[in-house]
Design goal:
Layout: H1 2-24, H2 51-70, H3 75-102, E1 118-123, E2 133-139, E3 142-149, E4 159-167, E5 170-175
Parallel strand pairs: 3-5
Antiparallel strand pairs: 1-2, 1-4, 2-3, 4-5
Helix pairs in contact: 1-2, 2-3
């Protein structure tokens, strides 16, 4: 059994070192086999079968198995400890990779997502769809400042709603409807 542990530790360690070296020269990004199950977005799945996860699992399986046997443990306790260590390593590496993939998501602001969103006039809008003013609005998790035009003149601080995208950095806005009076008796 010690030969199996040694071979696993050696193979897993060699794969980890190879990945480190490939990473140092810039060849580590998606050049080695990864298996994804299902058609989820890459950042959503827990990829237990990536080369990194399997390499870490093999290395920890082998190292802990050898450690338990070196401390006088029998084959069965060594195998149990090795399986636990290997499985834990695979899971932790897969979870870390999932978190890293989530950081790769595109952060580009898409103005079409602004339609229907509430905004506040920052720089007054003269009206008549002519010269633009500016509005602040929360879009895709951040506050953005956009040029805005409107049929009606709008003063600074006015609450508005984006109704259309009219240019690469310009939106059309209309005044927000005032809140309906409550009918308390």
């Amino acid at each position: 059994m010690s030969t199996v542990f040694f071979v696993c530790a050696l193979a897993g360690g060699a794969l980890l070192v190879l990945q480190l070296l490939l990473g140092l020269v810039g060849l580590d990004h998606h050049h080695l086999l990864e298996v994804r199950l299902g058609d989820l977005h890459p950042g959503d799945s827990l990829n237990l079968f990536s080369v990194r996860a399997v390499a870490a699992g093999l290395a920890f399986f082998g190292l802990l198995g050898m450690l338990v046997q070196a401390r006088g443990g029998g084959a069965l306790p060594a195998l149990a400890a090795a399986l636990l260590a290997g499985g834990t390593a695979v899971t932790l590496v897969a979870m870390a990779q999932r978190q890293l993939r989530r950081l790769e998501r595109d952060g580009t602001v898409r103005l079409e997502n602004a339609v229907g969103e509430a905004a506040t006039v920052y720089l007054s809008i003269p009206g008549g769809m002519g010269r633009p003013g500016k509005v602040h609005l929360a879009l895709q998790g951040r506050t953005v400042e956009l040029q805005a035009v409107s049929l009606n003149p709008l003063s600074t601080g006015a609450d508005v709603v984006v109704v259309d995208v009219v240019g690469p950095d310009t939106v059309e806005v209309t005044p927000s409807l005032p809140p309906e009076p409550s009918s308390e008796s």
